[in-house]
Design goal:
mainly alpha; Formate dehydrogenase/DMSO reductase fold; 2 strands; transmembrane; transport; Cyt-d_oxidase_su2; electron transport; heme
């Protein structure tokens, strides 16, 4: 494998990691006004991602920096063509980050409600626009011979791209709900599980339609295989969620996101950005990459640094692996008793269902 192809794979890996990690952050943010019935509930939801959300977002910074260094032409065309969309994403992420920090600084329901809705909006907007952006990258853009985007902002809002945006929006919402079943207990956990079942149906319809469109329009054998893996992994996540296998459901959900994003990159390769105006002038891995010397230096840097980054990420999740309870917020262990009774009641229902089946 040559270095440009290797770095195409590394960029794909970084974006896959970002969408898996920040994907469930977005999903939790979207769930706040739906599952959070009280302020305590909403604080529980925020605390599930409180220690990790900012670390998760660094993946997109590293991915963008790698894109800039390894494929400067690709970076320049995307950031000029998608300037308004990426600016909106940036503003949404800023509003979301500020809300996490300032929500608890004021007094009164109006203050906290304002920042809760900022977290919601700051989660919905990137989840939608990242899908729109990547769908347009796979589909291609009208460009001139110097790879300058020649379309308009509204050209980006085409049916394929909008379907991609709705797919990532619903998939990240589902991913976040499954994460909540893994990180909470009692009523909140059951609300997340029940809503994930319903949202999963929407995800299945949108994702199958989007992946099928992608495979048909931009066929590659690897892309087809990865799309099938994504579908099977999602079915596994949806079923294991119904069976209360929270760890498996989340693992299958993460695999769904990884396989779906990998399928997009596989469908794109060896192009970086197809030219819809003149396919012979498409940007490819070969003509859009940096020099061989630059890629060599980057490769050695990645070999030395990336293992430490992955290790630190894994260590962080291990440290903050425990479930979040209402009593962690209120200090009132009566809340624990309520959650325990909900868990026991649900356990009895499952036992009775299993007995009737046998």
């Amino acid at each position: 494998m040559d270095l440009p192809s290797l770095w195409f794979g590394i960029v794909a890996f970084l974006f896959i990691g970002y969408f898996i990690l920040d994907g469930f952050d977005f999903g939790v943010g979207m769930a706040i006004p739906v599952i959070g019935k009280t302020d305590t509930d909403r604080r529980v939801l925020i605390n599930t991602i409180g220690p990790v959300w900012d670390l998760n977002e660094t993946w997109v910074i590293v991915a963008g920096a790698s894109l800039f260094a390894a494929f400067p032409e690709w970076y320049a065309t995307i950031f000029s063509g998608f300037y308004l969309a990426l600016l909106v994403i940036l503003l949404a992420l800023i509003a979301r980050g500020v809300s996490f920090e300032y929500r608890h600084q004021g007094h009164g329901a109006k203050w906290t409600n304002w920042f809760d809705w900022m977290i919601f909006a700051g989660s919905v907007v990137p989840a939608l626009l990242w899908g729109v952006a990547f769908a347009n990258i796979v589909q291609g853009l009208p460009m001139d011979a110097d790879f300058n985007y020649t379309g308009t902002f509204f050209d980006l809002l085409n049916p394929y791209a909008l379907l991609g945006g709705l797919t990532t929006l619903s998939l990240f919402f589902y991913h976040g709900l499954i994460f909540l079943t893994r990180k909470t207990v009692g009523e909140i956990r059951e609300r997340a599980r029940a809503l994930a079942w319903k949202v999963g149906i929407v995800v299945a319809v949108l994702a199958i339609a989007f992946l099928a469109w992608t495979v048909i329009a931009h066929f590659s054998v690897l892309g087809l295989v990865l799309a099938l893996v994504a579908v099977l992994a999602f079915v596994g996540s949806w079923l294991t969620n119904l069976l209360h296998k929270d760890g498996l459901a989340f693992a299958f959900g993460a695999l769904t996101v990884a396989a779906a994003v990998a399928a997009l990159f596989a469908s794109l390769f060896p192009n970086l950005l197809p030219n819809t105006a003149d396919p012979t002038l498409s940007m490819t891995v070969a003509n859009g990459s940096s020099s061989e010397y630059t890629l060599q230096i980057m490769t050695w840097a990645a070999v030395c640094i990336l293992p430490f980054v992955l290790g630190y990420q894994a260590w962080t999740f291990w440290v903050f692996r425990k479930r979040i309870r209402r009593s962690h917020i209120t200090g009132d262990h009566v809340d624990d008793a309520v959650d325990i009774e909900v868990e026991r009641s649900r356990g009895r229902e499952l036992a009775q269902a299993a007995a009737s089946t046998n």
